[in-house]
Amino acid sequence: MIRIPAAALLLSLPAAPLFAQAKLPELPRLMQPRAVMSIPAAAPTESIRYGEAPSQQVELFLPRAAQADGRHPVVVMVHGGCWRKDVAGPELLRPAAAAFLEKGFAVWSIGYRRVDEEGGGYPGTYQDVAQAIDLLREHAEARQLDLTRTVLFGHSAGGHLALWAAGRSKLPAASPLRVDNPLKPRGVVSVGGFGSLKKWQGEIGINCGPDIVQKLAPGDGDARFADTSPEQLLPSGVRTILLHGVFDGVASPATGLDHAQDARRAGDLAEIQIAPVAGHFDVIAPGTAAFAQALAAVERLSNSR
Question: Rounded to the nearest 5°, which phi and psi values hold at 51?
């Protein structure tokens, strides 16, 4: 009897998959920055400087139609871009500004020094965001802005800064970021944003650079997050909606869920929304279902009591 080695038998078998494989579904085509920039955008009604650095500027967009009471609700837009000038800036949110204008909102789009600009990082980035938001008070009457209906709208890194700005009244007394009587918004919509530098510093490092969190929160130990990480400033007393695309590879839905849970445990009103066919940029791209969710969230908070 001739014995054939098992290995020889295997080699003689016809090539075939060991397991039947079903066809994998295709991922949807997700928006990227270049595609967002191709969407029709609004031109600022005016630009307002609040410092000498090029980034220390606010773009104000005013709607053509007046509200019934003559005053405009306000969307304060805080752009993302990994807290870095070499990634993106306010221009990425100009298409969103056009959509907010169509709904009767005035748009206050703030610029700020980022970590790769002189004076940026800690404390300059935060001080710029605070100063630019509080500057609204000086221009509200002349431009018919209804500050009682102000909603902060932050994307990506701007989501972190918008959530941080909402909690400024809780900043430690010794912090250089603390100011008296910060403007308190009616709500915050964070789209693809981070609610915690402390918890998500690993993910931020992978997506934005290994030194970003250190520049935003310098030092060692957890104390450095006391005045820089939004969850450390809860409860803010500000209603919050966190919207994330289900395919967001920068700030996953887990980051929004985590902050919503932190906010609720602290006593704030907060919710997480998932955009089902969306990534990191669909949430700021008018014409997508994800941006329609974002717009509805802003309108809801603006009209909430």
Answer: -165, 180
